[in-house]
Amino acid sequence: MFLDAYDLTTLSYGIDDVVKEFGLTPVLTGLVTSSIMIGTIVGNLVGGWLTDKYGRYSVFMADMLFFVVSAIAAGLAPNVWVLIGARFLMGIGVGIDLPVAMAYLAEFSKFSGKGNKASRLAAWCPMWYAASSACFFIIFALYFLLPAEHIDWLWRASLLFGAVPALLIIAVRSKFMNESPLWAANQGDLSGAVRILRDSYGIVAHEEPPAKTDAVKAKPKVRFRVLFQKPYLERTVVSAVMNVCISFEYTAIAFFLPSILAQFLGAGVFETISASLGLNALFAFTGGLLGMRLAWKFPSRHVAIAGFALQFIALISLALIGHPQATAGVVFAVLMLGLWLFAEGFGPGAQLMIYPALSYPTHIRATGVGFSRSLSGVGQRAGAVYSANFAGALRHQYVLDCLTGRTYPDYFPVNHSF
């Protein structure tokens, strides 16, 4: 989870330097920002299916190689096309990882009470924001470590650092990870499930010998079409709509957060990184922690609606205030951004994974999560391209107005002679 958030967040600051170094047009800028999201679509679909067919552990460990190779290739990219290809490969790794992670959380948690499945799944959100904050903190540290004359290397250094966590996970995998006992039992490997429970959790389980009259059950087949059959069709539709819409609005706002803050504050590199780090830590992360608590106390639907309501208020306020000049207006605008991040943390963001992960049984859980997340990739790509093209069309100083949907009577004079 940490790797996914880190890799998706890294270029949210560095995109401006990438544009300058490679002389990118708005179209190429959109490709750079969305290439990782296109990769996640492919990775989600393939990764979910592979996870249900071959197991959680095997797919997870193979996936770490994507992170190592893609991070190094992206950080050393000699031109924009290598960067786009490396980010696409990185996206495949992210896409494969999410279905595995959600399956692990759903299958290693209890059904009810504090720390239940919903609460554990909601934990992905504060972890995501912790990784986002860590990303900005790492960029913050690299900013001081790099020579002043090579500050344009900052985006490369942050991308290269993404290989470090993956290498650490590979190094400690045998001590802290094992296959899901639920998946093993679902595949008919009862002895393997017993061994995992004993070795990993100290649970003394016993394999019950099959009765002579019991028929040998075939391994359940993993098929996408099952998601569109009863009783899963309605669940698939709800999860799909949520993933597309939430990912679109998150990408359009959060990915361009440093650029938005730079416009608000009229700030340089140091101030922009500091403000981005502060907003993620104070609002998004705390909202995610609240989401974990709300997840085991209240229905997910109610929590999600409350989050959407607060986000609506924040975005309408930002649209009305526009590009503030006075200090009070700037403070209010930053607080509205914080409110949006806080609501995303406990509401839509926290509930985003709960719906698909708990809507399907073990043998198609990762497939269902992967399909939902692939549609999330569609929403992310649409949000990135929408934002980049609007920023290019209306000039950089109007990017906030584009993202928040403000009308433009001041920028497009109307001829009233008609």
From TrEMBL:
One of its GO terms (molecular function) is carboxylic acid transmembrane transporter activity. One of its GO terms (cellular component) is plasma membrane. It comes from Enterobacter agglomerans. It comes from the Bacteria. This is Inner membrane metabolite transport protein ydjE. InterPro entries: MFS_dom, MFS_sugar_transport-like, MFS_trans_sf. Gene3D superfamilies: MFS general substrate transporter like domains. Keywords: Membrane, Transmembrane, Transmembrane helix. The chain crosses the membrane at residues 27-50, 57-78, 84-106, 127-147, 153-172, 237-257, 277-296, 303-320, 326-343. Residues 1-418 form the Major facilitator superfamily (MFS) profile domain. It is found in: Membrane. It is a multi-pass membrane protein.
